[in-house]
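Interim report to the steering committee. The following record documents the input for Right handed beta helix domain-containing protein (175 residues).
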Amino acid sequence: MKKPNRNVVIRYNISQNGKEGLYFCGFDSCKEAENIHIYNTPHYTRKGLKVSVFPEGRTPINTLFENNISNFEDEASWGKGGRKGINTRYNNNLYYGIEPHPPDKNPMAENPRFRNPGRAGSDIDLTTLKELRGYRVSSRSPVLGAGAVIANDGGMDVFRTKLSGKKPIVGAVAY
């Protein structure tokens, strides 16, 4: 039997072209997840995938989604369980190509202006992360300085750039 997820932090990741869905956390039959915090993670999906954020049979449970980017170039849906959630909160996320999640306290619905998304491939050099540079944003991006302050945010973005904490970003890459 699997142990329940408790006190989980998922931060500063980059998700590209998730074909089956974006989040596989939470199960309708197992409501024991506790204190899950997912933040500063951009999700990008190319045209032709028609993704459900929460695939069939998945419902977010006891989770806070904050400062994330959902960028869909084609049809996307929240999924059957994703619209409701169980004790799940959303704050300060950017939505492009999908309607903002209704309970989000500070939703943004505009293009995040990634420089060159969708080109990372599957063979990423973990010492340089150069394949992920397309997820940097332009100087006109609405995510710059628009993030909610998160205590104990790890201090670095996905490229190991030190975070100032004064004007946080939405997404995984400090400008």
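The two ends are 43 Å apart (CA to CA). The committee is asked to note this result when reviewing the revised timeline.
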